[in-house]
């Protein structure tokens, strides 16, 4: 069998990804700020040999907190506490290039990579929530293209900072009194349109050299950015065809900038409702959907399409004619995904809300463990995915079902590891450790 | 006996506070980025019932890294990993009001307070290292007065953010589907000279309400700032008289702004060289001083006094006539402290370097355990301190000697706890938990 092994991350969302999960009897919304809740989830994923846990983030409060369990722990601290409670699993967290200073972000991720012994990944985003702007002294969220332009320079700066100490800069020679070979610690002297940063970083190079560069953003700009920088890309697709198109496109883009496409893993989200029969699984999904609240779902949908939908009949058709152009929205790829569903399925507004309730646009699959494993295998074998961000509709239980029922099937089919073979996240993902751009090239060394 | 109990923090500096500690055979400089090193130190301090561990910080690499073991883990991540490995001890870390965005800082400290169950303190600084400016797009470090002006507004903003959720805002009512009472979650709509921040914070109010506000900065501006905001102040004094003057002044300033001076604890640093005889302790200090390197010590001293001293005779007198005015320096209080030593003792440059090598200007005491305990008791009884930041010259061993030899004497004298009585850092320090400024006042509630 030539199928390569898949990568699986557990994407942890407080009470699960379904927007009504917190209302279910088995949910634990009171633990949303309890770090042991997240540590325990990570430990379960580690016991199942997942590549990593994954966290989304945005620096603003969701504006519909009345109806949704949101507002909890911040990712850097959450990731650190998880790293401290685990040994092998990777820890990937989202941070924004729009609302951080590169020096501060570089320090924290370098420190996390040190203290986790090389298990950290950075999910790079430009921030989808326009409300963030008002928490950072801006009148408005910068335009999509401007955000990606800043992201580009941001990556240049932090990469230089993470490279600024060569791997062998620390000597700690008690006898001579020389702690560091300062010829191997480099100022970066970056001067650009958005940033001017002298460096060097105030920390030695970390075990992975740099955190693993994960990226989330699938628009035209997002894809070019990912092709240049990303080592893994998290993406949302409703259909196999869309996912295949995306996969082929992103790998081609990587190739066209001179990269080995193997160095850029494509990881769509998948949200599994699992039952002992397909009917049971679908009934479970419906139970969840019945707990959704239109005041919440409509607000989410209205944000995505740029039109206030509250005046429309929930059971009437989606008013395609009034929606704002995707290019005016903050989150191009997700707005497009919603319009694609409308074009394909002509749902009522309520049906569309239910389609998005499970995982905000990611693929929701309701079925038996075999159905779920089949879908995963199909996407993997037909060029749509190198792995998945698993997004349980509810937590903590929803990941247990997946681990107990689906993971064994994937193992039987040779699709998923039974033991970790490496210790770093790069090793789990099959990614090389990058050399410092300031290190002498091998040629120079032998000259 | 009416003596109140003292507060003791362990101030962790990588290999100890003496600048040459890393060159000693018992040092572990290879563990500077190993989180277990810091976790173990915190666990020892916790076993000895210390109030907290404490970390300094600055967002720039020390410019004399060739000769000093510097450049390690970043405080937020280090503090989190320590919180995850301990249960009761407080964790205080330094973050700058000059080089952070208030929304980002507020999130991380709130998250830390949640995940430590109320054990976090923020050491507020405006940053002493002028080099930091060049890592944040600035041509120069803002002037001292400007930094404190920004700090003032920064504190206003983050305090509002930490108060923005009333304590009982989360309902998590599954039945009605209401997660949060949005009447109890407040926008802050701050518009000021430096910041414009809408809020609310995207996290519920934390166990302590806010992190404990610790402050380090003892200039005129620093003192006024502390009088308004600080709940504990970390300060450096060479003599009992100076410490008494400072203590009386800071308590008077707190009173004059309408605060209970008991709510502002004064914690000078103390760096103990402990021997079984005073002569042995002094010999140990000399051994350390013999390992200092003039290239390093002179650079530190030159930075503080604003004059390049490398051309001067090390064994000649300190050239008082050429030093820059304190008001031109970044770190007023420390520059003044150095000039005071010169005025008092007329040391040679080398002698001055040795005076500062142990703890960068904090009081170094070499003596028997009884001598150390006597000094601590004298400062406490004669109105110079509510407690101390203990700064072992070397680590990890230097804190063990203090815990084994000095702490029992303090306990015998009724000066230090034998068991924790509370669970939060506020409780350890005897500080009240602040109410949210947005919460209805008790009057309103009963009206
Ligand atoms: C699968 C996926 C996940 C994302 N997760 C986040 C997130 O956690 N936080 C966030 O601010 N933005 C997130 N984004 C959006 C990014 O911020 C992105 O930089 C921006 O909104 C533009 O997205 P686009 O390139 O798809 O238009 C995500 C995007 C995708 C496709
Ligand atoms: C005891 C003490 C400790 C300090 N620790 C730090 C520190 O860890 N990082 C830092 O940037 N500044 C530190 N500072 C200095 C502060 O940044 C301060 O805001 C600024 O330099 C002005 O200090 P001043 O008010 O004493 O002049 C410290 C100051 C004192 C007095």
Q: Briefly, what is this?
A:
With 447 residues, chain A is an alpha/beta fold. Helix content of chain A is 38%, strand content 14%. Chains A, B: Keywords: Flavoprotein, FMN, Monooxygenase, Oxidoreductase.
What structural keywords apply?
homodimer, 447 residues, alpha/beta, TIM Barrel, 8-stranded parallel barrel, two-stranded antiparallel sheet, 14 helices, 38% helix, binds flavin mononucleotide
Task: Kindly describe this structure.
Two copies of one chain form a homodimer. With 447 residues, chain A is of the alpha/beta class. Chain A has a single domain (7-278, 363-429), classed as TIM Barrel (Alpha-Beta Barrel), CATH 3.20.20.30. Chain A is 38% helix and 14% strand. Chain A contains 14 helices and 13 strands. The first copy, chain A, has helices at residues 35-47, 75-84, 102-115, 144-163, 220-229, 240-256, 278-290, 294-305, 332-345, 349-357, 369-381, 397-412, 425-429, 442-446; strands spanning 7-11, 52-55, 90-96, 120-125, 170-173, 178-180, 190-191, 196-197, 212-216, 232-235, 265-274, 363-367, 387-390. In chain A, strands 1-2-3-4-9-10-11-13 form an eight-stranded parallel β-barrel, surrounded by eight helices. In chain A, strand 2 (52-55), helix 2 (75-84) and strand 3 form a beta-alpha-beta unit. The longest helix of chain A has 20 residues, at 144-163. The N and C termini of chain A lie far apart (45 Å). The relative contact order of chain A is 0.16. The mean pLDDT of chain A is 96. At the A-B interface, helix 2, helix 3, strand 6 and strand 8 of A face helix 2, helix 3, strand 6 and strand 8 of B. One flavin mononucleotide (FMN) is lined by residues 56-58, 94, 125-129, 216-219, 221-222, 234-236, 330-333 of chain A. Chains A, B: Belongs to the NtaA/SnaA/DszA monooxygenase family. Chains A, B: InterPro entries: Diverse_substr_monoxygenases (IPR051260), Luciferase-like_dom (IPR011251), Luciferase-like_sf (IPR036661), NTA_MOA (IPR016215). Chains A, B: Keywords: Flavoprotein, FMN, Monooxygenase, Oxidoreductase. Chains A, B: This is LLM class flavin-dependent oxidoreductase. Chains A, B: Pfam families: Bac_luciferase.
């Amino acid at each position: 069998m030539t199928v390569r092994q898949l990568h699986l991350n557990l994407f942890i969302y407080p009470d699960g990804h379904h927007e009504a999960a917190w209302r279910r009897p088995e949910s634990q919304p009171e633990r949303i700020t309890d770090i042991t809740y997240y540590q325990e989830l990570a430990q379960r994923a580690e016991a199942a040999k997942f590549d990593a846990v994954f966290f989304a983030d945005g620096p603003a409060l969701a504006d519909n907190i009345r109806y949704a369990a949101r507002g909890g722990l911040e990712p850097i601290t959450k990731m650190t506490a998880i790293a401290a409670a685990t040994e092998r699993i990777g820890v990937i967290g989202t941070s924004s290039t729009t609302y951080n200073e590169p020096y501060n972000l570089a320090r924290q991720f370098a420190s996390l990579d040190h203290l986790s012994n090389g298990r950290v990944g950075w999910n790079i985003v430009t921030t989808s929530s326009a409300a963030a702007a008002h928490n950072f002294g801006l009148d408005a969220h910068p335009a999509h293209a401007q955000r990606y332009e800043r992201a580009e320079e941001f990556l240049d700066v932090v990469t230089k900072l993470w490279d600024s100490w060569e791997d062998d800069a620390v000597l700690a020679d008690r006898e001579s009194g020389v702690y560091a070979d300062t010829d191997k610690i480099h100022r970066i002297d970056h001067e650009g349109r958005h940033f001017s940063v002298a460096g060097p970083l105030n920390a030695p190079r970390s075990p992975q050299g740099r955190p693993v560069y994960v990226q989330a953003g699938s628009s035209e700009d997002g894809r070019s950015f990912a092709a240049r920088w990303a080592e893994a890309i998290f993406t949302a697709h409703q259909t196999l065809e869309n996912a295949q198109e995306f996969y082929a496109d992103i790998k081609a883009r990587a190739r066209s900038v001179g990269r080995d496409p193997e160095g850029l893993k494509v990881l769509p989200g998948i949200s599994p409702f699992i039952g002992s029969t397909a009917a049971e699984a679908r009934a479970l999904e419906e139970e969840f959907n019945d707990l959704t609240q239109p005041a919440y779902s409509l607000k989410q949908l209205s944000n995505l399409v740029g039109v206030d939908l509250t005046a429309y009949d929930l059971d009437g058709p989606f008013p395609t004619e009034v929606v704002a152009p995707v290019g005016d929205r903050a989150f191009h790829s997700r707005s497009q995904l919603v319009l694609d569903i409308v074009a394909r399925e002509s749902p009522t507004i309520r049906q569309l809300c239910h389609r998005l309730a499970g995982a905000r646009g990611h693929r929701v699959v309701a079925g038996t463990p075999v159905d779920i494993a089949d879908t995963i295998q199909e996407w993997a074998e037909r060029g749509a995915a190198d792995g998945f961000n698993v997004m349980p509709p509810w937590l903590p239980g929803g990941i247990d079902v997946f681990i107990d029922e689906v993971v064994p099937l994937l193992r039987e089919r040779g699709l998923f590891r039974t033991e970790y073979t490496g210790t770093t996240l790069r090793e789990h993902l099959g990614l090389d450790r990058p050399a410092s751009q300031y290190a002498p090239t091998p040629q120079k060394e032998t000259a």
